[in-house]
Write a structure and sequence with these properties.
Distance between the termini: 67 Å
GO cellular component, one term: plasma membrane
Pfam families: Ank_2
CATH class of the largest domain: Alpha Beta
CATH topology of the largest domain: Rossmann fold
Bound molecules: S-adenosylmethionine
Function: S-adenosyl-L-methionine-dependent protein-arginine N-methyltransferase that methylates the delta-nitrogen atom of arginine residues to form N5-methylarginine (type IV) in target proteins. Monomethylates ribosomal protein L12.
Shape: elongated
Order of helices and strands: HHHHHHHEEEHEHEHEHEHHEHEE
CATH architecture of the largest domain: 3-Layer(aba) Sandwich
Keywords: ANK repeat, Cytoplasm, Methyltransferase, Nucleus, S-adenosyl-L-methionine, Transferase
Number of strands: 10
Subunit structure: Monomer.
Number of helices: 14
Length: about 325
Amino acid sequence: MKEAEEQLCEAARKGDTERVKALIDSGTDVTHFDGEGLNPLMHAAKQGHAPVLTLLLSAGAPWNGLSPSGLSAGDYAMKEGHSEAFDLLLNAGIQAELILGTIARKENKSEDSGVDYLEDRVSFSEDKLMDSESKAVMMAWEKPLMEAHAKAVCSGGGHVLNVGFGMGLVDSAIQQYAPASHTIVEAHPEVYQRMLRSGWGQKENVKIVFGRWQDVLSQLETYDGIFFDTYGEYYDDLREFHQHLPTLLKPGGIYSFFNGLCGSNAFFHVVYCHLVSLELENLGYSTQLIPLPVKDCLGEQVWEGVKQRYWQLDTYYLPVCQSVEDPE
Ligand SMILES: C[S@@+](CC[C@H](N)C(=O)[O-])C[C@H]1O[C@@H](n2cnc3c(N)ncnc32)[C@H](O)[C@@H]1O
C-alpha cells in the first residue's frame, strides 16, 4: 500500500476528485513532493484537472512550489495549454502575492550577503556594470529594450525623468529625442562620478540629482515621461515609487519601468505582470504590456562571468502606463 501522499499525487494526476477530497479530508499533506520531484498541484496542472486544483488550493497547496527543473504548477498548465487550470493558478498567485508578496521579496534578497549595494564597489566594462559579488547591475544586451522604453516615455516630448543611470543606455536613447529637460536620479557614488566624467553634467537639457530617489523626491518636479529602473531594491520599492506617480507624472504623461519582475520563471513573471498592472490600475493608471522578443539578444556568452541570470525568458513585456482619466 502506497503512502497517502503518493496516493494523493496519483489521484491528482488522474483527476480523481473524490479520492483527492477523501485524502485531503483525512489530513494528507498537500505539499508533498513525490519521487519525480512533483507535488499534487503540479500533477493536476500538467493534466489540466481544474476541479482537483481548486480542491488542492483550498486545502493550502502552495501555488509557487518548484520542481527540480524550476517549473511551477502554473508553468506546467501554461506549457500544456490548459487554460482553465492556468487561470486558477494565476488567480491563486495574484491573491497570495497581493497579501504576502513573497516571490519578489525573495528574488531580490541577494542571497543575504548583508552588503548594501549602494555602499558596495561596482565595476564597469564594455558590456556590463557589476556589483562586488559579480551580479550584473546592468548589461548591454538590454540596449534595444532601453531604446524602446526611451521611445515610449519620450513620445509626448516635454520633460522627462529617469530614475537609475546604470550604463546610461536609456539616457543616451532619451537624449536622441531632445527633450525640453531630462532629469536623471542616480544614487550610487561611483556611477554618479562616472556620469560626471563622461560629460553628463555638461549637457544643456540634463539635470542630475544625486541620491536615492526616496530621499530626493522634494527636488523633483512634474514630468511628461518617467522611466524607473533601479537595482538592489525590492518589489515594495517599485510599489512605493508608484504611490508618487500622481505627483510626478503630468496629466497625459507616460510612465514605464524595467519589467524584470521574476524574470527567471515564466509563470511567476505572468503573475507579477498582472499584479503590477492591478496595483497601477488601483492608482488610476492603465498598463499596456508590449511584447518584445529578446531570445536573439541572449546567447550563452552574454552571461559569462555573471553570477545570476536575472532574465531567462524569450519575451520581454514593456509596460506603457498612462492615467485612465487623461486626455488622449
Ligand atoms: C539597472 S541600472 C539602470 C540601467 C539604466 N536603465 C540603463 O539604461 O543603463 C540601476 C541603477 O539604479 C541605481 N540605483 C539603485 N538604487 C537607487 C535608488 N534608490 N535611487 C536612485 N538610483 C538607484 C543604481 O546605482 C544603478 O545605476
